[in-house]
Amino acid sequence: MGGPGTRLRPLTDNCPKPMVPVVNKPFLEHTLTHLKSSGIEDIVLAMSYLPEAIREYFGDGERYGVRLTYCIEEEPLGTAGAVKNAAAYLDRPFITLNGDNVFLEMDFSEVYSFHRDKKAKATIFMTQVDNPSAYGVVETDADQRVKRFIEKPPPGAETSNRINAGGYILEPEVLNEIPQGKHYMFEKGLFPKLLEEGQPLYGYTYNGYWLDMGTPQKYFNFNMDILLRKTKSPLFQYLTGDGVYYSRENSEVHPAAKITGPALIESGCKIGRDVSIKGPVVIGKGCVIGDSTRLEKVILWDKVNMGQNSRLEQCIIASNTIIKDNSKIENSVVTPSKTVPLSV
Length: 344
Known about the structure:
It is a single chain. The protein has 6 helices and 25 strands. By secondary structure, it is an alpha/beta fold. It has 2 domains: 6-216, Alpha-Beta Complex (Spore Coat Polysaccharide Biosynthesis Protein SpsA, Chain A), CATH 3.90.550; 238-341, Hexapeptide repeat proteins (UDP N-Acetylglucosamine Acyltransferase, domain 1). The strands form 7 sheets. Strands 13, 15, 16, 18, 20, 22, 24 and 25 form an 8-stranded mixed β-sheet that branches. Helix 2 links the parallel strand 3 (42-47) and strand 4 (67-72). The protein is elongated, with a radius of gyration of 22 Å. The chain starts with 20 loop residues before the first strand and ends with a strand.
């Protein structure tokens, strides 16, 4: 489940990446629910940063219909080293995902059939992007066998727009190629080694929705995309009619407030007189929105207190943040201790 999420700071200063809320549910919960809907029920979570917060929330996975096993790293072991650390639970072909930041709507049965038919030792999930120079490019031949990797090629020098999408199917024997207890990466270690040895390494091109939620801007985009139905999650089914959903449990919405969807408002919120909310907007539990406040394209985490006559547009406000009366904030990430630009 990755490290401290430095690219997503300050949102991850006190929150592990898998627990960052997406439409008011931890990101990892969306992934687990998607895996369950695909028929995958045995899931190993390889973790190093703030693992107890994750274990406390998800438990043994029973309420999601899955079985969770936790493998904790004393020191970060890298993408491949973390999987090697869980080798005792991996005795048949398995899927590995960057479960703390990559979201994709993949039919896992289809990619597994591809892997099996190719008799691959490893299959890399690939996706096509407009700017491959920002990623690791994967070159394949006409049969989709991997020929070489090019890490962040200069703009204009790309030979392919297909990149590593952060997911793989592996045969358990490839774990023998990963050193035990050492920091080791799939991208720079295992896959180049398999390629050099002539092992059958294939790339599967995935054409659906894909997002690396690694920065505040991309995190913001992901929430907006779900609300706007550009992608879907099994956890998010309840915006209908006018596109406004709010939990009436301990909530107070003034009759003079105007809410234009899509908007998702959790329980325990108080929304004052003449408030204007224009979606896409996500509001977490226990938020207080003062009179005459305006929100547009905003994500509020839990227990945010918005002062009166404030204006927020295209912002992320972390839990327990207080916004003073008459504030005007745009294109920003705000936590109780700091404010930084949302997009640079």
